[in-house]
Amino acid sequence: MPADGHVFVITGPSGVGKGTLIAALLQRMPKLKLAVSATTRAPRAGERDGVEYHFLSPGEFQARVEAGEFAEHVDYAGCSYGTLRSELEGKAAAGGAAVLEIEVQGARELRGALPRATQIFIAPPSFDELRARLQRRGTDDPEKIERRLRVAEGEIAAQSEFAHVVVNDSFDRALEQLDEIVGAALAADATVKT
Fold first, then answer.
1. Parallel, antiparallel, or unpaired for β 70-76 and 79-84?
2. What is d(CA 62, CA 40) in angstroms, rounded to the nearest whole number?
């Protein structure tokens, strides 16, 4: 695990806007580096291997699990997702702070492995709005949307486990809150190191 640098674990239900918020945060804070997760799900239109995700076959994913290459891995809505140790180590070696966009189960797994990581939960303004966002996204069929919503119910209930909760009811407001949380953690790290 990273010996230097900070890790930010950003989680929340599918469709809540984690990816969009993280992309904007990375623009604001170039020191942050996204640790690209691995998945067995098929790429969506415009997604590139090694950029949005490391797209792996189920067999390759399982082989890497067995080889101990993942810091965390979970099954979510019928697909496997995980964070490769090499992604975290690479970000730390480059002197940056790593940002992980992962599922709630994965965030729980990382608490023991990375107790100093800052864990942030992105919440929807309401369950109905989350449903509407998933439908508007247009990337999943109705059955997959319902599966994601069933998982989301448990994830939303888990937000009290996180020290930081950002409600994405307004993109600009949510981004400001995320920026403040990350900035404060980085400033605290700099104080501790000096």
1. antiparallel
2. 10
